[in-house]
Amino acid sequence: MIGKKHLLSIVAAIGLAVAGIQGVAAQALSGRDLPDRPRVGVSYYKVPPGKHDEWLALYKKWHRPIMEAQIKAGTTTSSNLYALRNHQIGSPYDFVIISVSPAEPKPLGLSRGELIKKLFPDIEAYVAGEKRRWELTVDHWDTSLLEIDIDDPNPSVYYPIIDGRVVR
User: Fold this and answer.
1) Where does the UniProt annotation place the signal sequence (predicted)?
2) Which residue from 53, 135, 131 is spatially nearest to 94, judged by alpha carbons?
3) What fold is seen in the domain 36-146?
4) How far apart are the C-alpha atoms of 55 and 59, rounded to whole Å?
């Protein structure tokens, strides 16, 4: 039988190994932001069957105005909502929002909370609407995309970029 102290050592070693693997994977894209390229964010949403139109109406009423304000201010260049074109078995998402921001976005000029209060003076209605939208969101995740300079003679995700140049 394995002793408690030995078991804790094994669990700690596994945890460190997993953290190390994640660190190596993250290093591959470390320092890869190209200074003159836009920033691309992608948000995925999974909604229960038959609730898609309700989710869309809530998104349009309670979240889209925030994105439009960011576009108007120049903080965000564009934000487009997409749905799957075809039915798929076991699709992990139903909607995708792709938002593009300038490489150097303009400041919004107020906090997100201040923007929400300005756009939605009835804060209780806003909270209820967003709460319902998130109740309908079965799964959600965000990620960002990194543009690869494919015109580089040897494109790579491993060499860091310093001052807009790949360091080899």
Assistant:
1) 1-19
2) 53
3) Alpha-Beta Plaits (3.30.70)
4) 6
